[in-house]
Write a structure and sequence with these properties.
With 474 residues, the chain is of the alpha/beta class. Among the domains are: 230 residues, NAD(P)-binding Rossmann-like Domain (Rossmann fold, 3-Layer(aba) Sandwich), CATH 3.40.50.720; 79 residues, Orthogonal Bundle (N-(1-d-carboxylethyl)-l-norvaline Dehydrogenase, domain 2). Helix content is 43%, strand content 14%. Strands 4-3-2-5-6-8-7 form a seven-stranded parallel β-sheet, with helices on both faces. Helix 2 links the parallel strand 2 and strand 3. Helix 1 packs parallel to helix 9, helix 10 crosses helix 11 and helix 12 runs antiparallel to helix 13. The longest helix is centred in the middle third of the chain and has 32 residues. Bound molecules: uridine-5'-diphosphate-glucuronic acid. Uridine-5'-diphosphate-glucuronic acid binds next to helix 10 and helix 12.
Length: 474
């Protein structure tokens, strides 16, 4: 790993690192004597905390939810993320200490990463009550200089509100050196770009690190933290960093909706969307990522962040109708998929359907806003009987969608799920499905129909294996 971080842009700064306090602070940071507290131990906070521990920092992983902290203390990662259990195992008790006392963690640490949830309200707006509450707690426990880093996905101007909240409840000065009786602090925005399922890889090999700062001190500390990574560090202002995060997610969502519409067009003219996407992606200006047609994007981030971005624009009197269309196209994907199923099977009532894949993408057990959930709901409403399989998501999903005689059955393996099925519906592109023995699969089924929502099989090979095979945009 190179020692130098590539800084692409300098912030406007009114605070050169000259004061004695800053010199002493930077010494503690460089020697890693300064501790880090990660506030919020969810899908963002836990991987962030463990990657910092791996980089040699002493990290307090703080969460108000005692049960969550207890699980971590017992070496149990509460959600599936490849590589995370190994990191927890390695650092628990030395570089990584889970704590349920947020206040103590704030007082003990110098650098605070805010990783609490920002769920959405009914109108699409982000609910920032957890961020506000943490900012308030930080203010009440500001016992010495802190760098407060916002990592949760938040609308632009949240960092400004964090700053104002701290100023309101603490005797403190932002961006400057505290004079008698006052404590200095900095607020920074350092959005995460982790993808569930490959979060650990993203953490150590990011495409870029974005740091929104207002002072040289905050910039210096963040650069020190990210120095070991072989990644460009883009230094910006606070709201620019916040907008980069939202714009990145919205742009990627836009690519997916775009390619899904192209897929519909390919179907009617007899073209192949996977080849069209390959041809598009070869243009360096477009890039090949996020051009896989399918059943639409899901998960906790894209749908929520897209709505929050639309809402933010609206708040400032702008109509981001382009993104509304991205959302509308995405919502239609479930219906487009169901039409394919109906076209293949005619009536769904009384049919047995094997569903392969429940998580919103491979590599995770997360089913939040997964297109599979909407598809399952519709199939059940139409009277189909479902045999569900997923390599990871079943234990969690079972709690909200229990087995039901005659309509919902969870299966240990895909072959069992395919037993006497009138069709296999493939909803998540887990690698194990690509490796299935097609002859065995076909022999289990009542009718050899496969509706592939993720284009994982080769159409010619499927036909050769005796399947009626329907996919997306081919
Ligand atoms: C997304 C972003 O990719 C991350 O950079 C970001 O940090 C994260 O949201 C977040 O804001 O926390 P994630 O939601 O984990 O990450 O998953 P993605 O890999 O982006 O996939 C999102 C959805 O798009 C999935 O349902 C996936 O199946 C779908 N997708 C993705 C497609 O339909 N086609 C594609 O070509 C790519």
């Amino acid at each position: 790993m190179p020692a130098e971080v590539n800084t692409l842009q300098s912030p406007t700064s009114d605070l050169p690192l000259v004061g004695e306090a800053d010199v002493e602070l930077m010494e503690r940071v460089r020697s890693k004597q300064a501790k880090i507290a990660v506030l919020g131990m969810g899908h963002v906070g836990l991987p962030t905390a463990l990657s910092l521990a791996e980089m040699g920092w002493k990290v307090l992983g703080a969460d108000n939810a005692i049960a969550q902290v207890e699980r971590l203390r017992a070496r149990y990662v509460p959600f599936y993320e490849p590589g995370l259990s190994e990191l927890l195992d390695k650092h628990l008790g030395n570089n990584f200490i889970p704590v349920d006392d947020l206040e103590a963690a704030i007082r003990e640490a110098t650098i605070l990463f805010i990783c609490v949830g920002t769920p959405q309200r009914e109108n699409g707006e982000a609910d920032l009550s957890q961020v506000e509450s943490v900012a308030h707690t930080i203010a009440l426990n500001l016992n010495a200089y802190k760098l407060i880093v916002e990592k949760s996905t938040v609308p632009a101007v949240t960092a400004e509100w964090v700053k104002r909240t701290i100023l309101r409840y603490a005797k403190a000065v932002p961006n400057g050196n505290g004079s008698a009786g006052e404590i200095a602090f900095d607020v920074a925005s350092n959005p995460e770009f982790l993808q569930e399922g490959i979060a650990v890889r993203n953490l150590f090999y990011p495409d870029r690190v974005v740091c929104g700062v207002e002072s040289d001190r905050a910039k210096a500390i963040l650069q020190e933290i990210y120095r070991p990574l072989n990644a460009p560090v883009l230094i910006t202002g606070l709201s620019t960093a916040e907008i980069i995060k939202h714009a990145a997610n919205s742009f990627l969502a836009m690519k997916i909706s775009f390619v899904n519409m192209v897929a519909d067009l390919c179907e009617v003219v007899g073209a192949d969307v996977t080849q069209v996407a390959a041809g598009l992606g070869m243009d360096a200006r477009i890039s090949p990522g996020f051009l896989k047609a399918g059943i639409g994007f899901g998960g906790y981030c894209f749908p929520k962040d897209l709505r929050a971005f639309i809402h933010l624009a609206e708040e400032f009197g702008l109509n981001f109708s382009l993104l509304r269309e991205v959302e509308a196209i995405n919502q239609q994907r479930v219906e487009v998929f169901l039409k394919k199923v109906r076209k293949a099977l005619w009536v769904l009532r009384g049919k047995t359907l094997a569903v392969f894949g429940l998580a919103f993408k491979p590599g995770t057990d997360d089913t939040r806003e997964a297109p599979s959930m909407k598809i399952i709901e519709r199939l059940l409403a139409e009277g189909a009987s479902l045999r569900l399989h997923d390599p990871r998501a079943i234990p969690i999903l079972k709690q909200s969608l229990p087995e039901k005689e005659g309509s919902i059955k969870y299966c240990e393996d895909p072959y069992e799920a395919a037993k006497q099925a009138h069709a296999v519906l493939l909803l998540t592109e887990w690698p194990e499905y690509r490796a299935l023995d097609l002859t065995q699969l076909r022999s289990m089924m009542e009718v050899p129909v496969v509706v592939d929502g993720r284009n994982i099989f080769d159409p010619a090979q499927m036909r050769e294996a005796g399947f009626e095979y329907i996919s997306v945009g081919r």
